Please model this.
Amino acid sequence: MTFDRHLAEIAREFPQWTIWRSDAGRWWATRHHPLSDAQRDAGGAMTIDADDPDNLREQLRDQQRLAGEFERRAGPAPP
Model:
């Protein structure tokens, strides 16, 4: 599969992130919206990188899990 196709698939799977591949061949993702201090303290990352698209997907899934755990602990947003 071409790297353009990997980029497109990952971008569709994780629309809240911008995905790209550097000239050096590393795969990157950065969030569209900033994290709170509490989210960063819980392990959230604004930008992640990986050697290959599969590892990037794995890290993005980890970030999704962390976000879900954080939201469950924080409870509903105030009205």
Q: What stands out?
A: The longest helix spans residues 53-74. The longest strand covers residues 17-21. The chain has a mean pLDDT of 89.
